[in-house]
Amino acid sequence: MDLLSPMHIIVLLVVALLIFGPKRLPEIGSGLGKSIREFKQSMNSQVQEPKAPQPTEYPVQAVTKEPEPPQEQ
């Protein structure tokens, strides 16, 4: 389902032309383009989520268990 079909875009452009006039429309378009470009740049320059630290591999040591003393019954 298209949100904006070509007919919708044409109607929006005609309405904008009638409201703002032919002199202001290019100024509004360039201002909108600049603001979108700045928004994209700010989104790209944000600090990205820190990556989880990689686990350091340590040598595995054998666990020795001392023998239990015999229990008296």
UniProtKB/TrEMBL annotation:
Region listing for Disordered, in residue ranges: 42-73
Q: Is Protease among this UniProt entry's keywords?
A: no
Q: Name one GO cellular component term.
A: TAT protein transport complex
Describe the task this protein carries out: Part of the twin-arginine translocation (Tat) system that transports large folded proteins containing a characteristic twin-arginine motif in their signal peptide across membranes. TatA could form the protein-conducting channel of the Tat system.
Family affiliation: Belongs to the TatA/E family.
PANTHER family found in the cross-reference section: SEC-INDEPENDENT PROTEIN TRANSLOCASE PROTEIN TATA (PTHR42982:SF1)
This one is known as Sec-independent protein translocase protein TatA
Instruction: Name the species this protein comes from.
Output: Sulfobacillus thermosulfidooxidans
